[in-house]
Amino acid sequence: MVNQRFIVIVLDGFGMQAMADAAWARPGDEKSSTLGSILHDFPNLKLPNLESMGLMNAYGKESSKMKFSSTAVWGKSELMHFGADTFMGHQEIMGSLPKKPLVQPFQEKVEAIQKHLEEYGHKVEIRRNGNLKYLLVDDYCTVADNIDADLGMAYNCTAPLDFMSFDKELEIGRLVREIATVNRVIPFGGTGNTIDDILKAEETRENKFIGIHAVKSKSYEHGYQCRHLGYGVDEKVQAPTILTKAGIDVSLFGKVADIVANDHGKSVSCVDTAEVLDLTIEEIKNMKNGFICTNVQETDLAGHSQDSKWYKELLEIADKKIGTILGMMNENDILVVMADHGNDPDIGHNRHTRENVPLLIKKQNIKGRSVGLRKSLSDVGATVCDFFGVEAPQNGTSFLDVLK
């Protein structure tokens, strides 16, 4: 068997510039540019490995410290999914054809979800902020809007895992999923925090949405666990399921492990940027033939926190680790560095932004080529399946021919 790995690193929220449809699809995002904002704030930023892979080629202009690369293989991609969403972005990357989700504030489902939870024996308390309501279940699990992403697209279940097991929280989340018709229900939590920390992180948006600010809840700091329960996503038509069914190893690291089905592969959840990329490096050392996808989540958290300095520092860490990965590749391997949407830290809100994302591609002995502007992130999943000679996923067009 030929040793070959296809490695995808998703720098979560690392967009290039607003998509052409942003003005009507996401009013307010039409001037967004995640990379542009970071370069504006830190014009001397130097990311040598991403620069060599064509970062500025994809961005479309040079900075004072980073230039176009004549040897890079690069492109960029639009988002086919509605809005700008990490969950749907990764389903799209893996080859799902996106469907427009239902958008519904938690206020429209709160009573139905309360009743369903009580029918299954759970204690449910209604918490109020003015006219807005959310739930506290079994004293330790909040159920409310996700206010850190597209509003009305997801509900969060947040619990301190020193006081409620993740299995119990997941049980609550599955009951919420049975009633909710939004894109995602997301049970998550960490250790070292308390329910008071979570309740103090309560925030409202637009006088219609109420939820827990994830970073302020301290859930990410220690012992983080998370599961994304999707609406209308078929894992059977996605690259990981197709590959593992064909006997090909699949390893998912970081947030992608929480949100993409990989029942017969390896999935390791991790948030810290250096740690998740070190796990990736170790897997490359051990894997002879297979697919690795890693999500670097902290860049997205920096965007949500509107903290361009933190974002810049995370990019520097990621760039150094990507340099290590580049040095480990054999002549058959392919590396793709990309994003799933934008998250402009200077746009003036803490939501994702609808931006074109980079496609930075490395294969030994292939230089100076472009895969153009792709219409869907699914082109990556289609290329992965084409690379391993298995059936194509539901959506996407392979660009493997450019790499031969």
Q: Topology of this protein?
A:
Layout: E1 4-11, E2 17-18, H1 22-25, H2 34-41, H3 48-52, H4 55-59, E3 73-77, H5 86-93, H6 110-119, E4 124-129, E5 132-137, E6 141-145, E7 154-160, H7 166-179, E8 184-190, H8 195-200, E9 202-205, E10 209-212, E11 225-226, E12 229-230, H9 239-245, E13 249-254, H10 256-259, E14 266-268, H11 273-286, E15 289-296, H12 298-304, H13 308-328, E16 334-338, E17 355-362, E18 369-374, H14 378-388
Parallel strand pairs: 1-15, 1-16, 3-18, 7-8, 13-14, 13-15
Antiparallel strand pairs: 2-17, 3-17, 4-5, 5-6, 6-7, 8-11, 8-12, 9-10, 16-17
Helix pairs in contact: 6-7, 11-13, 12-13
* Tally of distinct domains: 2
Overall 3D form: globular
Number of continuous helical runs: 14
Helix fraction bin = 25-40%
Strand content: 15-25%
Q: Give the class-level CATH name of the largest domain.
A: Alpha Beta
The termini sit apart by: 19 Å
